[in-house]
């Protein structure tokens, strides 16, 4: 039997999540150190729901850079960003609750897609995985790790590589992807994140830098206003809602509660709303729709929700490789509550934000 209390908790938690049918993986290329791989695989095998609960328990030692949660597990491995679909045919998704940070962006036709970032918890499976868009380099570049996706227009794939990220594309033959039998294409590409991380090359072994600042008394709770709901309009067909449950924010698509493939509610410790310009590019998707680009450079209005409170803020990002900086109206840094964060990119003009 494991000797430490933390180890006994992890064993008691058991395996979580319902796996999908997969084909046998090809031999993995070495990349991560043995210690880092063991830590990742243990967390993934325990199931991301139980592993997340264990990670959020108070403990001594360093903190996970993308959540601010204390940990005694090694953190010296790279972050993995994965492009996840959010159309009706893609729901419920697999692995979103394991992500440290999730970014939501508007794509063609007003539907949205996610960039889910994994570091502190590595789930057994994630998906559906879809193609990249022009705003993805600015989202993932500050992580300086790996980015995985199904494919995409070459100009966008090149832009991701150009920021220094390591590219893992299903269409290009990278290991770790598979197609499920219970969904039709193109909504059936899934991935094994441990297999993706095992391909990290020598220049992509480092842990990510913190993307946000964290505090036990976050800015929204210290200086903001009480709020139990956060209603967003990203487009005419995308209106995510967040409701404070007493210990976390719960997501809904319109009035329909959002759940993952295992039936667990999609939830976050923090919700960060950035008001952004969305412009039309010259590119078209396969159906002939113009591809929009979220302009994630410069500055704009923000709203930060933590602990059942919200606070107005300003976001600033000077270069693609810079993380987003959040400041109050007085210019002070904004801190988040330790935990997971969803970042909502709400268009200026056509979008809307309401807290109550």
Blueprint (SSEs and pairs):
Blueprint: H1 5-13, H2 34-46, H3 48-55, E1 80-85, E2 101-106, E3 112-118, H4 136-140, E4 146-149, H5 154-162, E5 166-169, E6 177-179, E7 189-191, H6 193-197, E8 213-214, H7 219-223, E9 225-226, E10 229-233, E11 240-244, E12 249-253, E13 256-257, E14 267-268, E15 270-284, E16 290-295, E17 298-306, E18 309-317, E19 325-327, E20 335-336, E21 341-347, E22 352-355
Parallel strand pairs: 1-4, 2-21, 4-5, 8-20, 15-21
Antiparallel strand pairs: 1-3, 2-3, 6-7, 9-18, 10-11, 10-22, 11-12, 12-13, 12-14, 15-16, 15-17, 17-18, 18-19
Shape: globular
Distance between the termini: 49 Å
Rg from alpha-carbon coordinates: 19 Å
Please, what is the CATH homologous superfamily of the largest domain?
YerB-like
The strand count comes to: 22
Written as H for each helix and E for each strand, in order along the chain, the element string is HHHEEEHEHEEEHEHEEEEEEEEEEEEEE
Percent of residues in β-strands: 25-35%
Contiguous uncertain segments of 5+ residues: 1-59
Q: What structural class is derived from the secondary structure elements?
A: alpha+beta
CATH topology of the largest domain: YerB-like fold
Largest sheet: 12 strands, mixed
Count, helices: 7
Mean pLDDT: 88
Write down the CATH class of the largest domain.
Alpha Beta
**Architecture per CATH nomenclature, i.e. the level-2 architecture of the largest domain:** 3-Layer(bba) Sandwich
| Helix coverage percent | 10-25%
The overall number of domains is 2
Please explain how this structure is put together:
With 356 residues, the protein is of the alpha+beta class. It has 2 domains: 30-197, YerB-like (YerB-like fold, 3-Layer(bba) Sandwich); 213-355, 3-Layer(bba) Sandwich (YerB-like fold). The protein has 7 helices and 22 strands. The strands form 4 sheets. Strands 1, 2, 3, 4, 5, 9, 15, 16, 17, 18, 19 and 21 form a 12-stranded mixed β-sheet that branches. Strands 10, 11, 12, 13, 14 and 22 form a 6-stranded antiparallel β-sheet that branches. Strands 6-7 form a two-stranded antiparallel sheet. Strand 17 (298-306) and strand 18 (309-317) form a beta hairpin. Helix 2 packs across helix 3. The longest helix is centred in the first third of the chain and has 13 residues, at 34-46. It starts with a helix and ends with a strand. The model is unreliable at 1-59 (pLDDT under 50).
